[in-house]
Amino acid sequence: MTHTTPIKLLIICGPTASGKSDLALRLAHHLDAEIVNADSMQIYSGLDVGTAKPTPDQQADIKHHLIDVANPAQLFSAADFSNAADVAIRNIISRGKRVVVAGGTGLYIRALVKGLVDSPSGDGELREHLHDESARIGNLAMLEKLRQVDPELAAVLHPNNLVRIIRALEVYQLTGIPLSRYQKEHAFSCRRYDTRHIGISVERSVLYERIDNRVEQMMSAGLLKEVESLLASGCGRDLKSMRSIGYKEVVAHLAGEISAEEAVRLIKRNTRHYAKRQLTWFKADPDILWFEYPEKFDKILEHAIEFYEQRER
């Protein structure tokens, strides 16, 4: 099926435990849509409880894509996601359905919508040196160093986004070329998707309470047995999937390194820290419209319908 205009994508994003899956399901019902998962851990089969994967009933209710598409030992990059999502989206559109993309992995969403930067491979020794330097002089000083060589990129980065600051300095020191130039050269030559980004806004204390409750629910739902099963099937603790939050802490408990109570405490703490990083990423995106959910569901639905009907009228 050939499209002369960009395909419309409604994208639901936000921090973990904010209600993205539930919102996506409700919207999909109203919009006659299918859901494309954009959570980097839900793509792995066998990682169900610890990733808060949609239940079999939910997946039967509304068709989901890019869930259980990789085994836990498989490396699955943002580029892999973008390619697989492109195929899924075109399949959905070919059947006359609309598309809702939902997930909290900001890099996956950016790769799908804007592409990935075609920049040189990293240099571990140089990156370690830059991390050491940042520990000595601080994030603001590192951002100022970047401003001297790549003012365009430095202008849009927050001092707390140290990963991107260091990556940009690394690229410049390796090549003498600003990372912003690579980004421009690798931008898609034409806009593939017309997007509307909806972010779920949750008051911080409420979000943290939801996270704590979710972790308790995961433990009650059998996270311990799930990790035992994965280890028994040959999934080592060094795998990327097994180093994710919820799994690495339980593995440490099963190895006798920490108590069950400490594992739960660490999962809660690490999930809160992850939620903060997600918020930092998404808040830097001016395209995202933020709404409280479920309080503002009617407003969200109104925006979604208006977005789709712009071209369909």
Description:
With 313 residues, the chain is α/β, with parallel strands linked by helices. It has two domains: 7-115 and 189-312, Rossmann fold (3-Layer(aba) Sandwich); 124-186, Histone, subunit A (Orthogonal Bundle), CATH 1.10.20.140. The protein has 14 helices and six strands. It has helices spanning 20-31, 56-61, 78-94, 106-114, 124-137, 139-149, 151-154, 162-175, 179-186, 204-220, 223-232, 247-254, 260-283, 297-312; strands at 7-13, 33-37, 64-65, 98-102, 193-201, 288-292. A six-stranded parallel sheet has the order 3-2-4-1-5-6, with helices on both faces. α2 (56-61) links the parallel β2 (33-37) and β3 (64-65). α5 (124-137) crosses α6, α10 packs across α13 and α12 runs antiparallel to α13. The longest helix has 24 residues, at 260-283. The protein starts with 6 loop residues before the first strand and ends with a helix.
CATH H level, superfamily name of the largest domain: P-loop containing nucleotide triphosphate hydrolases
Identify the strand order in the major beta sheet. 3-2-4-1-5-6
Rounded to the nearest angstrom, the distance between the terminal CA atoms is 20 Å
How many domain regions?
2
| Percentage beta strand | 5-15%
